[in-house]
Each structure stands twice: as C-alpha cells, then as structure tokens.
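Dock magnesium ion; give full complex structure.
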Amino acid sequence: MIMLENVDKVYRTARIETLALANINLTVEDGEFVAVMGPSGSGKSTLLHLMGLLDAPSTGSIHLSGKEVRAWGDRRLARLRNESIGFIFQSFHLVPDLTVLDNVEIPLLYRKMTGSDRRKRCIRALEQVGLGSRIHHRPGQLSGGQQQRVAIARAIVGEPRILLADEPTGNLDSQMGDEILQIIEELNKQQGTTVVMVTHDPRMAERTARTIRLFDGRQVN
Ligand SMILES: Nc1ncnc2c1ncn2[C@@H]1O[C@H](COP(=O)(O)OP(=O)(O)OP(=O)(O)O)[C@@H](O)[C@H]1O
Ligand SMILES: [Mg+2]
C-alpha cells in the first residue's frame, strides 16, 4: 500500500517557487492498477517521483506498507527502491554507453544471482517488449519507441511489487502501445503488481480500475 497524507511539493529555484503538488491525500492499495491524468505541468511526474521515493515531499508524509518513509535511512531507502519499485521515466534515463542488455541488467546487479541467470532474465524481459533482436545495440542506435521499450524492460526485469510508469506508451504507435499495456496488465493481474501509470490517453486510462486526476497540483476527483 502506498499512502500520501497532506502532501505538498514546492520546487524552489533562485527566482521562483512552484507549488507542484498541493494537499494530496490518496491511497493506492496493493494490487491496484491506477491511472494518473491531468494537463501538462499539473504535477503528474512529481507525484510519481514521490511515490517512487526518488524525492521527498515538502510537507506531509508518505507511507509504504504502513510505515512512514521519512524515518528510513538512505541505505534502506535505496534497497527498498531497488527491490520493490520499478520506474519507467518519462525521458527513459538510459545509460548511453551501455548496450540495451547492460541497461536492462542494472536493477539486477544488486541481487544475489549468477551472471547467467541475470542475462536470461534480461533477455526474457527484452523479448517481452519485442526487442530480442536489439540487445547489443546502444540506446543512441534505437528509435524513440524502442528506447521506451528498453526502459520498460528495465523496470519489469526485477519483478517489482510496485510499477510506476510515466507515460509508458507516450512514444509508441497505437499497436505497440497496446502491446505494452497488455504486458503491464498481465503483471498486474497475474503477479499482483501494483501499477500507477501516468497517461494522456483516455483509452489507456479506461482500462484501469481508477483514475487520479490532477489540475494545477491539486486532486480534482
Ligand atoms: N526540478 C524542478 N524544478 C523546478 N520546477 C519543477 C521541477 N520539476 C517540475 N517542476 C514544475 O512543477 C510543475 C509540475 O511538473 P510535473 O513535471 O510534475 O508536471 P507533469 O504533470 O508531469 O507535466 P507533463 O505532462 O508535461 O509531463 C511544473 O510547473 C514544473 O514546471
Ligand atoms: Mg510529466
């Protein structure tokens, strides 16, 4: 379970303060599949970053499985992120000097597994997203949609309990987008993975059980 209580997020730069999220109260239960929608700049990515423990709220608190996250040390947080949370970033965040296979392997490097088991799982994840024939390419040698699929393989390879996906189909044509959504739906149904997915596409949101709507950093459900 992910719970946000009275969460505000303020970004401060030298000249301006942006209230990216204001008074967010929400709970995502284990095994839920939730969509997040809202206009550009409404705080969707910010919300996902907070849920993924990549950033901390300015006020309010975040609880994971009933425990308040703030109380945890950096090492424990890093371990929790690595083992429990898969994150598909809006801008992919692939490592340009590494091959596709090595990019996907990153989350598994901290696991107690043999190298050949790691490779097998990476190849399986890449085959799932239709990239089995591109494993030795570098990200710069791939199309935008292919890079997005590498990012998806990297997020699911460690079988995380929670998958946070920031417009995972934003760069894909409708058929490929549909296939990716099916993969995510299967993870949710068969393995009980909790999924929070940002999307601009109402047809994608319709396939989830619930939609969280943001406007100017506020929840408008
Ligand atoms: N690192 C940052 N520093 C300063 N302001 C930021 C930062 N990140 C986001 N913001 C601001 O916070 C607000 C929310 O941004 P966010 O990225 O969460 O929007 P979004 O809903 O994901 O938009 P999009 O659909 O365009 O991806 C925006 O006004 C943005 O300019
Ligand atoms: Mg965004």
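Observed: The helical segments are 44-51, 74-84, 100-105, 115-128, 144-156, 174-191, 202-206.
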